[in-house]
Structure formats: C-alpha cells, structure tokens
Design brief:
Helix content: over 70%
Shape: globular
Order of helices and strands: HHHHHHHHHHHHHHH
Structural class: mainly alpha
Distance between the termini: 21 Å
Strand content: under 5%
Number of helices: 15
Length: 295
C-alpha cells in the first residue's frame, strides 16, 4: 500500500549515466520523501522476526545473555583466563556485535527478498536495506534491557557514562548502513554473497577485541612484532566501537571503573563511515536500474 501511495512524479530513471553528486542528491531526496514507507517496512520487519519464534523479540534479551554465558564458560573455565567482572566485559562487545551482524545479514537479503515487489512497483529500492538496518536499532533497544539486568550484578560499574551509549550507537549505525548498502546491492548479482558474509562476520568478530581487550591483541606475539598488523588491529572499526562501548559500560582494560570513550577515534570513525556511506550509496544507485532485470 505504502509503496504505491508514495510513488511520485519525482521518481526518475534515465538511460544516461549520472554523476556521483546527482546520485547522492537523488538518494537523499528518496529517503526524505519515503519516510512513511521506511517506517512501515521497519514495523513489518520487526513483526515478521517476532512472529517466527515463540518468544518473539524477547530473544533479543535472552540471546546475548546466552552467548555471554557460552563465552564466559569457554574463556574462564576451559581456557582458565581471568578478567575482572568478565560477564559484563564480554557483554559490552556481544550486544553491539549482534546488532551489526544481524543487520548486515538481513540487509544482504533485503532486496532479493522483495523480488516480486520490485518487478511490479516502481519505488526507491534504497529504502529496503535502510529498513532492515533501522529495525536493528529497536532490537538493540531490547538488548539494553538485558544490559540493565546484568548491571544489577555489578553495581559499582553503574555510572552516568551509560547515557553515552546512544552517541556511540549513532556512529555504529552510520557504519552499519554503509555496509548494508553494499551487501544488499551486490547480493542481487552474486547470490553466494550471503554465505561469504556469514564467514567474514564470524572471522571479523574473533579478530576484533570482543572476547579480549585490545591491549591483549596488540601485545600478542604475532601483532606486536608486525607494525602493519598492529596498525590494522587499531584501525579495525569494531576495535574502536568495542573499546568505546566497553569504556562506558565496563571501564578500562585493567579493571578500572567506566570512563569517557576516546572521542577523537570515534570522530574519525564517524567521518570515515560517512565517506563510506556516500560511496556505497553511489554503488547502490548505479546498480539499482538493473535489479528488476536480474531478479
């Protein structure tokens, strides 16, 4: 209904190639004029995911806690490595990663899953990965309920710095949206991308300081002796995000209480994410006219 009602005369297609700035202006205009459609798709995505299981969206409260329990047992019991208040330490990484990995996974299929609609209705396909990624914000909110419950077991780490989580989440949203645009458009032409993305995400998580501190990775034998690997470890977007979330939720790597995140590194990540978002938007808009033909 919304796809039909919001199609306007402003929606243009052209056989002539347009420049990057023209494509960006068109994308921004489409997003601004299709806000109702995006809201509808976000609500539909949340309802669909919630209807697939008995507990619905409560899994966003339960699942990160279960993942935390598995990793706590793996690291603390099997590998016998101790970190003060480790459940909270690891949860600060699991929660944002679940948001990112789920959003990217959903975005990968966001366009191909609407193949029938795309063939029948003219509307900006950019709203599809936007909706799937934005739905992740609501799910992240459910995960905050689990965080609030967990914090009750570590009252000394409850602080006003927790109020900074939304600011860090904004940076993550921009970065996630950029990746979502890329995988959503490329997956239309290469359907194996979904399988590749799952493996890449799994490897990305283990190479990021989610289960361990960034200093642990930097001081490892492999990384400490190689300046290039050390720099790559530091520049990993999720090294920056994990450290930022952990600063306000858990504290410092040496067990210190919560503190301010490194705003300078977050600022650079936000700037890089905006540039990446512009590039992936251009890629999406370049490929968009061919979607209906391939699907």
């Amino acid at each position: 209904m919304f796809a039909h009602s919001e199609v306007s005369a402003a929606y243009r297609t052209s056989a002539e190639p347009r420049g990057p700035l023209s494509l960006l202006r068109e994308a921004i205009g489409e997003i601004r004029s299709r806000q109702r459609l995006i809201r509808y798709l976000v609500q539909a995505d949340l309802k669909r995911n919630g209807a697939d299981t008995l507990l619905g969206n409560l899994w966003w409260v339960i699942d990160p806690l279960l993942q935390m329990l598995v990793y706590v047992i793996l690291v603390s019991v099997i590998f016998v490595k101790s970190t003060e208040d480790y459940p909270l330490f690891i949860f600060a990484g699991i929660l944002p990663w679940k948001w990112f990995s789920t959003s990217v996974g959903d975005a990968t299929l966001s366009v191909v899953a609407q193949a029938q609609l795309i063939r029948q209705v003219r509307f900006p396909k950019l709203v599809l990965p936007i909706a799937s990624t934005t739905a992740g914000i609501a799910n992240f909110g459910f995960g905050m309920i689990a965080l609030a419950g967990l914090m009750l077991f570590f009252p000394d780490r409850i602080s006003a710095y927790l109020l900074l989580i939304p600011l860090i989440a904004v940076v993550q949203y921009v970065f996630t949206l950029a990746i979502s645009f890329l995988v959503a458009s490329v997956n239309v032409f290469f359907r194996d991308l979904g399988n590749v993305v799952r493996h890449v995400l799994r490897l990305w998580f283990y190479l990021s300081p989610g289960l361990y501190a960034l200093t642990t990775l930097e001081n490892s034998t492999l990384v400490s002796g190689n300046p290039v690997l050390r720099q790559l470890a530091v520049l990993n977007p999720f090294a920056i995000l994990f450290e930022a979330y952990r600063s306000v939720i858990y504290g410092t790597d040496d067990g210190g209480l919560p503190t301010m995140p490194h705003w300078s590194t977050l600022g650079w990540l936000l700037l890089g994410s905006v540039v990446l978002l512009a590039l992936t938007t251009i890629v999406f808009k370049r490929l968009e006219p061919s979607f209906a033909k391939v699907l």
